[in-house]
Amino acid sequence: MDSSVFFGVATIAYILAMVAYIAYLAFRGGMVGVAATTVTIIGFVSQTIGFGLRWKEFSAIGGMGLLRSVPLTNLYESLVFFVWCIILGYLIIEWIYKTRSFGAFVTPIAGITLAFISIGGVSAEIQPLVPALQSNWLLAHVTMSFIAYAAFAISFATALMYLAVNTEDRRSFPYIFWTATIGLFAGALVAMSIDFITLKIAARSSQAFIQNYLFKATFRSEYAAVTAASFASLGGFVFLAWRYGDALRKLILSFSVTPDMLEDITYRLIAIGFPIFTIGGLIFGAVWADQAWGKYWSWDPKETWSLIIWFVYAFYLHARQMRGWRGNKIAVLAVIGFAVTMFTYLGVNLLLSGLHSYGGA
Amino acid sequence: MDKTDTGKNSIIDRIWSFFASVKLAVIVFSCISLTSIVGTIIEQQAASENNIKLLAKIFGISSAHTVYGVLDYLGFTDMFNSWWFIALLFLFAMNLVICSIERLPVTWKLVRQPQKPLGAEGFGAGSPGREVVIKANAENAGNKAVEALKKIGFKGEVVKSEGLVQVLAEKGRYSRLGVYVTHLSILLILIGAVIGLKYGVGGSLKLLEGTSSSTARANNGKDFPLGFELRCDDFEVSFYPESERPKDYKSILTVIENGREVLTQEIGVNNPLTYKGVTFYQSTYGFFPNREALFKFSVMPMNSPREDVSLKFEGSFKVPGTNMSVKVADFSPALAVNSKGDLFTFAESMINPAVFVEISEGGKVKSRQWILKNYSDTWRTPAGVIEFKDLWGAQYTGLQVRKDPGVWIVYLGCLVMAIGLYIAFFMSHARIWIRVKEEKDKTRLTIAASINKNRIAFDHRLDRLAAELEKTKS
Ligand code: HEM
């Protein structure tokens, strides 16, 4: 059996788990909850096996040895790994906090992402690596960065939920902030899904995808009308989120999560993500650059933005630890942290390299 | 701190509290982040047209030149080397150091102080389930508590004072220093970077196969004396099948000092050579056709032993055991066939090296053919098997050269940072007190505990401790 079978099983399992978690919220049944967790774990194990098999396939085709063949070179693979990290993070949270409330949130993201990937054209195409990328440091650098991104992503979700349950006044800054964030985020996700379906490009390297295809079907369309309509829809998303934020708040409150718990999860995820990002993202990245190009730090846009991520999260930790910031202020910082992370991942390639000729290898 | 208690408010005190303030940290963090964002939008150290074109998109053509002039004056076109950015980093470092020094004494005292018995109020709000009554005298109960602590990985100690008995256990007291280790590491990295900027040199060097050099070209255009001589013995590049994507490239380099060869090493991308503080990185390569380059063949005539020959362009050799001679008449670094069946050279690098030979017998040309390095079926000729092994002396290796005496401090700083972060985030200071109170023929054990992070995991451990004590009841 090859890896795609296991990924298929995982996709179905996550979608079943989504149904079970929603049923669990509706009926609060103990057995339903156990079933939801079991199905999620089955999906996770299957995905893990799939990942391992793909790693082996990759190393067999590429012939570069096991360590240099981590299947994390294109968009398809990095999304799969991202989903894997998020499910792992979720299962740990479920275990530590003894709550299944987030399941209905997380499993749809996982299932839908995997489903989109397969619609967008699952490909086993192996892209050979240029010599600079053939390094063991790269393995450590990429995997650890992704684990940190996943931790930041979940902390982003919990920080938004915190803001949602904590604000009622439609005119207050935190309310506008969290609803606008949700609106923008949902809009971007929908636009990306449209890219996937219309352009079938999941097998590209993530850099090539971001530079050449991302938002090509919407915001960056060749047709001015499509572009205008896309931005108008984005505005619509933001307005809807703002208008019906209340309903979302009630929904989240019905999950029986407390603000304290949300704030605690947000902090702990950042406290795990920050050191992993520092060591894997910044330090290993610098060591690798030093080995490959003889320069451990060259202030290129990607590096500089990574440093900004680092400063934002360092700010978060110090504000919380030293100044005792709690509540909305600190949750806003956590949201900004992930927004900067997303910009580093997508925006640097999309916008900055469009401005001048960065990128390449 | 006691500095203000002395009543003196000297200049030094004021400077000190300026640097120790958290507000400064917030301002410096924001300034570094915001200016860095500008630095990623404006292309750094680039030709001015690039940025003017970019600014024209944002501000319109008419004001682009003015805006560029202002940004250039302010140093934004090379901002990571500008005096004010360096000054920001310096402020950041000072802030970090003085903030840490300010707080270190308090933490240090805490770290030096061994755990003390807890007052009665500490056990007041003892949570349910954290109290166990066992049938034993105080002495035995204390020992049992030490046993139970051992099971959860703590080393307990029975302390008697003023008639009260408590079992104390503590772990990770020194983890409170993790923050300082982390801060120190940032300082180390900055110091290493400054040393590198001040005393380091970067440059590049191109070496044709077979040639050597004792100077590289520094990035500022000046000569960069290496202090020894470096020779390129060989360069090889391999490509992915059916593509122009390089798979791997490597050079064999020899270091020559005072006329003596002291070291020969193969280097590749991600695998540099360091000698006497100078590091050579494989960065590029190129093809430089010239008449001194040598074609290397391995000749296997029908009934003579194998023989290696090398010759220059348009040179010829006699095949042993025959009266045939082979002449090199043409060469292509990347031979290909187009759709019409014509041969052509499709690239400038040695992707598919091929040599065109003329084989003559008794002065008359008998046959002509292409011999391709990568295809062994083209080696068969009327004069026997002639393998084309290499064209040596026609490729050059492009090396990045760097001398950076600060890099070890940067690496040390990175290591210290990893350790510091591990301590700061994954270790915690946990303390447990068990009060031992004899009541008639029983003893009441009450647990109190504190930890500075990771509450939940610690709570599970305390539950296990209570369960262990519960077991000793019988
Ligand atoms: C980006 C650079 C910095 C990094 C990576 C860093 C790292 C850390 C870490 C990991 C902690 C422990 C936090 C925790 O346990 O949650 C910490 C605490 C602390 N940091 Fe920083 N720091 C940085 C900059 C600064 C600066 C500029 C100052 C000076 C104002 C500062 C002052 C402090 C103080 C006073 C604490 C102690 C908090 C406590 O006692 O628990 N840090 N830092």
What does this molecule look like?
- Chain A is mainly α and 361 residues long.
- Chain A has one domain.
- Chain A contains twelve helices and no strands.
- In chain A, helix 1 runs antiparallel to helix 2 and helix 5 runs antiparallel to helix 10 (259-293).
- Chain A is globular, with a radius of gyration of 20 Å.
- By secondary structure, chain B is of the alpha+beta class.
- Chain B is built from eleven helices and 23 strands.
- In chain B, the strands form five sheets. Chain B has an eight-stranded antiparallel beta sheet.
- Chain B is elongated and about 120 Å long.
- Chains A and B meet through helix 10, helix 11 and helix 12 of A and helix 3, helix 4, strand 7, strand 10 and strand 21 of B.
- The structure holds protoporphyrin IX containing FE.
- Protoporphyrin IX containing FE (HEM) sits between chains B (22, 25, 92, 95-96, 99, 103, 179, 182-183, 186, 421, 424) and A (311, 314, 317-318, 321-322).
